[in-house]
């Protein structure tokens, strides 16, 4: 079962510039594991050294934050869309956007 | 304060809408917004706040108008290049609406001054582009109970929300911690579509105006994501985190902290001075690079910018492998040779150099100041961008 994962702009260099990737998996954790196996460069951006999702990267199942569902154990259904939403900041340090 | 006849004429398109009316317009007149920054987001936001008749607009900034700002920072014009952004913004806002007051604060927002600066204002409009100031703005808003009309932009994508309202989530509920420096590229590296901050800044102004008038449904508990290329708006749900260190049930952050430290941003000049001796092994500068090129020394010059940047200008003899492709193409980079890595300003190349060292490359140097320094100090015919 493949689900669509939406890739945010800052991470697209690691998915061959694709803004969405179809990945198999029954849970969010499985989907993300398969995603980072396919695109290894993504891994350090999503997970820390302990293998935990980084705190400046949020993952949404449709419009719900998985932190308030069952985190990485959250089950996905056909047609669900997963979004990776990292924090972004504008310009050079010290100036304002 | 009631509206004068001149103001009634000016705001007539507001006044004839029952949702605004005289009452709403008077609220705006007696209302105040502090814009953090007069840049990409602050420019359109301040212009619309002024036009709408928000009685007091404060701006915090310490920057000077540069040619590269004009593509998106519409509050400034070409004749303003070289002026302080505050002076330029104030002139423009008062020309647009002389009935308002503009307060300017020529300072960097800090843990020392934030609470005093925020106190007199009804709404804070976060137009910052860096994590330390963003967390500082968030925490100060939570501590003072001031709503934060938040916006952020990157390339073609923008985010907006309203944080720190009573019972609503704050930025830390969304992102408890910032990314380590270097992992996320900035706009100066990644670029930004000029019209994008126009959209996001205007959304922030809309929210500030609604909050002051007390009308509509504010963007609280909702995270708006805008993709300009696809012209799509998405909305994600945002919850207040009971464990949030600032606005949670048992907050651990109850006063402002050192945000540079929190975000892992060491003050750059100190770092350079302190590591002067050892930096010779990991860093080089454009003068030394020029000497090596002229002496026809044998080394590999690696440019890790994007192809479109490479087209704008390059250093002779350099090979392009964009940062994102370095891990896949690492075999193209010769071992056993000195490697000098460059980018626009030296931060992406520092990341690439660190990666190569991790991969066992022994002699890797980062070019300090990147191609901008090359243009300044060696070859001005290479355009700066």
Supply database-style keywords.
heterodimer; A: 97 residues; 24% strand; globular; disordered C terminus; B: alpha/beta; 8-stranded mixed β-sheet; 17 helices; 17% strand
Q: Can you give me a brief rundown of this structure?
A:
The complex is a heterodimer of chains A (97) and B (385). Chain A is α+β, with helices and mostly antiparallel strands and 97 residues long.
Task: Give me the secondary-structure topology.
The complex is a heterodimer of chains A (97) and B (385).
Chain A: E1 2-6, E2 20-24, H1 28-38, H2 43-46, E3 57-61, E4 64-65, E5 81-86
Parallel strand pairs in A: 1-5
Antiparallel strand pairs in A: 1-2, 3-4, 3-5
Chain B: H1 5-10, H2 12-15, H3 21-29, E1 32-36, H4 42-52, E2 56-61, H5 85-96, E3 101-106, H6 114-118, E4 123-126, H7 131-144, E5 148-154, E6 157-163, H8 171-174, H9 187-190, H10 196-213, E7 222-227, E8 232-237, H11 259-262, H12 268-274, H13 279-282, E9 283-284, H14 286-294, E10 299-303, H15 307-312, E11 318-320, E12 338-342, H16 347-358, E13 364-367, H17 370-377
Parallel strand pairs in B: 1-2, 1-4, 2-3, 4-5, 9-13, 10-11, 10-12, 12-13
Antiparallel strand pairs in B: 5-6, 6-7, 7-8
